[in-house]
Each structure stands twice: as C-alpha cells, then as structure tokens.
Amino acid sequence: MATAEEAKMEGEVVMVSMGSYGGKVKLLSVGEESAAEETMLLWGIQQPTFSKPNAFVSQSSLQLSLDACGQSISILQSPSSLSTPGVTGAVMWDSGIVLAKFLEHSVDSRMLLLKGKNIVELGSGCGLVGCVASLLGGQVILTDLPDRLRLLKKNVEANLRYGNVQGSATVRELVWGDDPDRDLIEPHPDYVLGSDVIYSEEAVTDLVATLLELCGSKTTIFLAGELRNDAILEYFLEVAMKNFIIGRVDQTQWHPEYCSSRVVLYILVKK
After folding, report:
1. Predicted pLDDT of residue 59
2. Residue 220: what are its φ and ψ, rounded to 5°?
3. Which has the closest alpha carbon to 118: 171, 221, 189?
4. 8 A C-beta contact, residue 267 and residue 247
C-alpha cells in the first residue's frame, strides 16, 4: 500500500511502493483535473499516435508465438472476429504482450512473487497473460464473456498441458457489473490482471464495479492499456480514483525488449 513514509519527491513527481510490487511507481495525484493532466502528459510525452500500432503482434495471423518462462507459447487468434462490433478479445494486442513480459521480467528481477498466489485475470481474451502468470507459479482464474471462452480454453489447454507448469489455470465466465461467484472473492485474490480492458466509456463503470467487488485491502491490480483514446482513459481514471490509489509504472521497469509508447501500465490498490 502506498504510504507517506514510502513516498519520495523527485521534483513534482511522487514515487511510491504500491501493493505487492517491489518497484517504485509514479503516484497519480487526486483532484478534479488529475485524470485530465495524466492523459495530457501521456499523449504529450509518449505521442502514441506517431508510433506503429501492434508492434509485437500480427492480428491478421491465425497464430502468435512468444518465448516466455523458458518455453514457446503459441496463441490462437480469430482475426475474422475483429469485424464484429465490440469484439476485441479474439486477437492479441500489444498491451497483452507488454503485461505478460512485464510479469516475467518482474519475477525474474525479484520485484514480484506470483508463485502460490491467487490471481484473477479480467477480459482474458486469447489468454496469454493468464498463461504466463500460471507458468510463473500463480493459481490463475482466467475470465471473459461467455462467447469468448471457447478460444480462451483452447489456448490454456494447448500451452499449460506440460509438466513444467508451476501454477494452475482455470477458465471461468465473468460479466463485468454482475456479482462475481463467491469463490472469486473468498478469499480475495492477491492479484487482478487486465490488458486492453479500458476500451469504451460504456464498459468503464462495470469494470470498476467488478474491480471493487474482487479486490480486498491486500489485492494488487495491474492494468495495461492501449493509448488509442484519451477521453476513454481519462474517464476511467476519474471513476477509478474515487476508490483506488493509482500509480503508473515507468517503462524503465518493463521488460527491456517489450516497451511501447502506445501502451501504459498502471498499478491500483484499494483506498
């Protein structure tokens, strides 16, 4: 949890420890204009519109391969599903690659311990992040909408069927805004993960409501997002700041080979 004792000033930037992550992150200020200031800063510094989208993925391919945790992970995609309005989870996005490799890098550098921890992933999509978390020792529940589970189950079964898996992975239906099953919140998970889950203003309220239901006082949330719409990100930050302390992880702490100016990574903990 972020505390005043752990905070240190670097100019006007407050760097803090948050949750179970061992590194220091930039604490987002709380105020009427803080969400707007954060989005303006991101777009000003990172200039995402000038960078190539999907630098780490090919959304036209039926399969994506990635080396992680000492093995080659193969992720099946459904490019044709992108033509369906509102369906983005049938293909990989850079934010998922970034988050998966960030988890691996953080465990390797001893900034994060996932072994034996209870983890829930929201909007799992193709399942890469949850698979990597399981390979790193987490007891992972990967969740998504009912019509997304078939592809998700295929990828989990294909990549976690060998004996070198340290953790476990199960696939479950979870609709944001609905009451989660009791075993998802009793006990509360140690970690909640999400990549490319901030994609529409309509989904923000239900996403934050689900985060509030899932998380206890010791839960650490990692959210990686695509910088494609500043208004949607600003709205999410405004809503989330009412109940969560939010910190931004600097790219110097990401996996050095998987950084992108089109992606942002936040840590959230309950107030």
Report:
1. 77
2. -110, 130
3. 189
4. yes
Instruction: Tell me the C-alpha distance between 126 and 12, whole Å.
Output: 39
Q: Which amino acid is at 111?
A: M
Ramachandran angles phi, psi of 44, nearest 5°: -75, -40
Give residue 6's pLDDT.
44
Percent of the chain topping pLDDT 70: 92
Q: How, if at all, do strands 168-173 and 139-144 pair?
A: parallel
Residue by residue, DSSP assigns the chain as: ---TTT-EEETTEEEEE-TT--SEEEEPP-STTHHHHHHHHHHHHH-GGGSPS-SS--TTSSEEEEEETTEEEEEE--GGGGGSTT--TTS--HHHHHHHHHHHHHHHTTS---TT-EEEEES-TT-HHHHHHHHTT-EEEEEE-GGGHHHHHHHHHHHS-STT--SEEEEEE--TTSPPPHHHHSSPPSEEEEES----HHHHHHHHHHHHHH--TT-EEEEEEE-S-HHHHHHHHHHHTTTEEEEEPPGGGS-TTS--TTEEEEEEEE-
Return the amino acid letter for 239: V
Average pLDDT, the chain: 90
| The dihedral sign for the CA sequence 57, 267, 262, 205 | positive
Q: Is the pTM here over 0.85, yes or no?
A: yes
Q: Which residues, in sequence order, are bridge partners of residue 8?
A: 15
Give the pairing of strands 220-226 and 244-248: unpaired
